[in-house]
């Protein structure tokens, strides 16, 4: 691999104040100059250098600079290489990010959309992590940045661009009993206590992973309404942060992956609920259950029955609400099922 050191050449000048720089960085050439047409350089007429520089600049703009902008960037030899399951995603998506290097790597960390990303070793010199896009993220282009450390503290960096598109979430109109749509002061106090309890629980995720292989669906059925903009009794409310899966009451609900039970309880909006920590901040939520078969602190295996479908809390019929958060980013559970984690 060619050296990534910064290379600069200063051309001889007949008068002070003129400078021409040719810079090469990471295989990309960038031309930059301060130029006075009244000067001559290296014995050549100034107008000849003007034409030359204009030609080089046009060539660089068409070919070199685009390659610089969209390639992984590194400052050291043996640069790490990044690959994504998809570089164009919609709001609510989660993708796998793979990191590999010919050089030995000890650890790796990353950031995406201001969220820290923990990397998991997948082989010699290779790691992977997950990157999520919140359902309310603005469409646009975002940078995923990675820093890897090798033996002796040697640091290497890489980056890739991810394009986020609008998911065009639908609108959902619901009509509920007034007591559910507009909680009174006592119910509102209960809701606030429950929110505080959940927030404390979410901050205590496990430092390692429980999952092994790909995720499975907790029940069979069509997954609907993720991200839908809800209007309840004519009043716009917060978006729907999970998928609803219709099923008969009492249908067993399975753990999509191994994990430890963070929290269970009967909550105002979500009824009988289970919060399952899959590790490193990947939290699964299962709402409106008719029964709960696990307890806080219990470790469960993938495919284990954790409860049953119901219609407790604010629900209009029997169904399972399955929600997923990745380090507090609200993602579509169906996107998680599409990931290959074997």
From TrEMBL:
Annotated protein name in UniProt: M23ase beta-sheet core domain-containing protein
SUPFAM superfamilies tied to this protein: Duplicated hybrid motif (SSF51261)
Keywords of this entry: Membrane, Transmembrane, Transmembrane helix
Cross-referenced InterPro entries: Cell_wall_metabolism_enzyme (IPR050570), Dup_hybrid_motif (IPR011055), M23ase_b-sheet_dom (IPR016047)
Native organism taxonomy: Bacteria, Candidatus Glassiibacteriota
Transmembrane portions of the chain: 17-35
Domain M23ase beta-sheet core stretches: 239-333
A GO molecular-function annotation: metalloendopeptidase activity
Gene3D superfamilies, sorted: Glucose Permease (Domain IIA) (2.70.70.10), Peptidoglycan hydrolase domains (2.60.40.1590)
Domain of life: Bacteria
